[in-house]
Amino acid sequence: MAGADVFNIYQNKSNLRWVVLATAAVISLGSILYTNLLVNKLKERERSFIRLYAKTLEFALDESVTINQDINFISEEIILQNNTMPLIIMDSLEKVMGYRNIKVDSTKSEAALHEKLRKMARNMATEYKPIRIAPINPATGEPYLVQFLYYRHSNLLTQLIYYPYVQLSVIAVFGFIAYMGFSYSRTAEQNRVWVGMAKETAHQLGTPISSLMAWVEYLKADEQFANNEFLDELDKDIAKLQLITERFSSIGSVPVLNEEDIVAIAGKVADYLRTRVSSKVKITVESMHKSVIGYVNAPLFEWVIENICKNAVDAMAGIGHITIKIQQASDWRIFIDITDTGKGIPPAKIKQVFNPGFTTKKRGWGLGLALAKRIIENYHKGRIFVHASEPGKGTTFRIILNRQKNP
Ligand SMILES: Nc1ncnc2c1ncn2[C@@H]1O[C@H](COP(=O)(O)OP(=O)(O)OP(=O)(O)O)[C@@H](O)[C@H]1O
Ligand SMILES: [Mg+2]
Predict the structure, then answer these.
(1) In 107, 124, 163, 186, which residue has its Cα 20 to 30 A from 33's Cα atom?
(2) Separation of alpha carbons 86 and 54, rounded Å
(3) Looking at domain 257-402, does it have CATH number 1.10.10.10?
(4) How far apart are CA 144 and CA 136, in angstroms?
(5) Residue 302 has pLDDT above 90, yes or no
(6) In which band, very low, low, confident or very high, does the pLDDT at 392 lie, cut at 50, 70 and 90?
(7) How far apart are CA 195 and CA 252, in angstroms?
């Protein structure tokens, strides 16, 4: 498998893609889980802080305790310490007694402000159970002024909760842009190689062909050879060489698309192939219409049909039937289905057959279908794919072409 060794990288590409995707998923999941762990720990810490805070408040309100300076200092330190966690204190009738770390609109009336705070407090209660503060009245021994402290985790913690998502999105966007840039430059490089090789080949073939033509003319002028049939054969071979040159030079430049009869082109390729393959291989062209017009570059399109039919012949090991079926699928599109009765393509390989270098043949380069795809998709803006394939039964390749110049 000469081609396979050279282009091995193309077959590993899809595996590599899965490895990269799986790694990215593991990293993302890991970072989200780890941050969650941190968030939960910090939540617990904030909760115990707010309990201490509530206790301090209760203590400060308790009249049975004679507050000396030290205690006052400690409790105030704790109360002032909280400059991150939003909290609201209301009595049991939902009268707002105080709040901290909540931004309020100072232009609003007090009633409106309290209404808003009440709403916020109820919201807070859905997430964190409010803490009851009930200082004892020393005279009765009963709690008086029962209040509730509503709270929520700090904004810092909210930021931490969203942080991994923001970070991962930024990385994903960056990765996507980098991937696009990379694959664009790779495609551009491939294009240069294809075009450069094709131009060079056409150029190199030019000189010996014109020389051959001159020699044939010279021989024809000689009476000794004038009516010899080998000259006709030589003429045919030169014509074939010229066709090859034309194909290479078309692929090396921007090919011109013309209105062509697809049925006639298919017929021509079939005629050409019939003379070259075993008589046990039948090649037929089928079409509902006598002619079907599409926009193609004839030399390149012939090349595509020829490549697919040659593969079909290879797949049939000398005996079988190739059908080229041409259909006007719609006002816009033409289907060309090339079906063989060969060995078929295993399902796992179907996606790979168009990769440059994919071959299962001893003498194959794995370039036939890569070239066909390039010609159909890049130059004709059409599509080519394996329409159906069953191991042991055969394969159908479908080409979709445009009937209009600018679809
Ligand atoms: N009609 C078909 N039936 C079964 N297998 C096919 C058929 N057409 C293509 N393949 C498979 O796809 C592979 C790639 O085909 P492609 O034409 O690109 O390269 P190749 O024929 O191996 O070599 P090259 O065309 O460059 O001489 C083939 O080696 C073969 O395994
Ligand atoms: Mg081939």
Answers:
(1) 124
(2) 13
(3) no
(4) 6
(5) yes
(6) very high
(7) 4
The response to whether residue 316 sits with its C-beta less than 6 Å from ligand 1 reads no
Q: Where are the domains of the chain?
A: 2-153, 257-402
Residue with tokens 């696009």: 180
Are the beta carbons of 164 and 31 closer than 8 angstroms? Answer: yes
Residue range 192-215, pLDDT digits in tens: 888 898 889 999 999 999 999 999
- Shortest CA distance to 296 belongs to which of 240, 243, 250? 250
DSSP for 190-206?
Answer: HHHHHHHHHHHHHHHHH
Ligand nearest to the CA of 344: 1
**Could you tell me if 338 and 313 are in contact, meaning their C-beta atoms sit under 8 angstroms apart?**
no
End-to-end CA distance of the chain: 40
Q: What integer pLDDT is reported at residue 89 of this predicted model?
A: 92
E strand or H helix that includes residue 395: strand 394-402
C-alpha–C-alpha distance, residues 144 and 161, integer Å: 39
What is the C-alpha to C-alpha distance for residues 43 and 218, in angstroms, rounded to an integer? Answer: 97
How far apart are the C-alpha atoms of 39 and 154, rounded to whole Å?
11
Tens digit of each residue's pLDDT (9 = 90 or more) over 248-261? 988 878 788 999 99
Is the CB of 394 within 6 Å of ligand 1? no
pLDDT at 330 over 60: yes
The preferred substitution site among 316, 359, 389, 397 for testing ligand 1, maximizing ligand atoms within 8 Å of CB, is 359
Nearest Cα residue to 371 out of 358, 387, 388, 389: 358
Distance 19 CA to ligand 2 centre (A): 31
